[in-house]
Automatic annotation (TrEMBL):
The active site is at S54, K97. The keyword Transcription does not apply. This is Signal peptidase I. GO terms for molecular function: serine-type endopeptidase activity; signal peptidase activity. Keywords: Hydrolase, Membrane, Protease, Transmembrane, Transmembrane helix. The chain crosses the membrane at residues 23-46. Its main location: membrane. It is found in: Cell membrane; Membrane. It is a single-pass type II membrane protein. One of its GO terms (biological process) is signal peptide processing. It comes from Candidatus Scybalenecus merdavium. It catalyses: Cleavage of hydrophobic, N-terminal signal or leader sequences from secreted and periplasmic proteins. The gene is lepB.
Length: 192
């Protein structure tokens, strides 16, 4: 009789051990996946929802975008990059705009056309082929962009709250979160 009881206890203990092992086997991959996702979000990727039409037609109202946080760790932000950054007038807000002015440049807008005097003294009219909603208008500037700062504008120039209108006109490099790579909702598209 005691042998049978011992056998039953062994089976019960083994069954409990198997149940615990099954739970651990199920939970460990989930925990690992969550930790990896958190690390990627903290150090590699950022995401944002674009709540306005300021970047039409490149990015649509309500689009969700992914940005690389690593890009600007190894390279300087470039003109025409679309970036996610902390809004200079309220750093609790995140904005998505195009970089049009670089550190040390002077930028102005004449009749809706954007011009820069580069650090080597050249005067350039910037490409506006991505500005497709309507012909931009207005005169703004000149703006002398401080070192380590950038001038941002939306692609929908006539309907964009951007550097032209902010109290703090420039975005410091350390306030740029990342370079937008693609939109992932409502459709997946690479951002050019």
């Amino acid at each position: 009789m005691q042998v049978e009881q011992l056998e039953q206890k062994k089976k019960h203990v083994k069954k409990k051990r198997n149940s615990f092992k099954d739970v651990v086997d199920f939970c460990v991959p989930i925990v690992i996946a969550v930790v990896i996702a958190m690390l990627l979000k903290m150090f590699v990727f950022a995401n944002a929802v674009v709540p306005t039409g300021s970047m039409l037609n490149t990015i649509q109202l309500g689009d969700r975008v992914i940005a690389s946080k690593l890009t600007y760790r190894f390279d300087d932000p470039q003109r025409y990059d679309i970036a996610i950054f902390y809004y200079p007038d309220d750093e609790s807000m995140i904005y998505v705009k195009r970089i049009v002015g670089l550190p040390g440049e002077t930028l102005w807008v004449e009749d809706g056309k954007v011009f820069v005097q580069t650090t080597d003294g050249q005067t350039l009219q910037l490409d506006d082929s991505f500005v497709t909603v309507e012909e931009p208008t207005g005169d703004y500037g000149p703006y002398e962009i401080p070192e380590d700062c950038y001038f941002m504008m939306g692609d929908n120039r006539n309907d964009s709250k951007d550097s032209r209108f902010w109290e703090n006109k420039y975005v410091a490099r350390d306030k740029i979160i990342g370079k937008v790579l693609f939109r992932y909702y409502p459709s997946i598209n690479k951002i050019e």
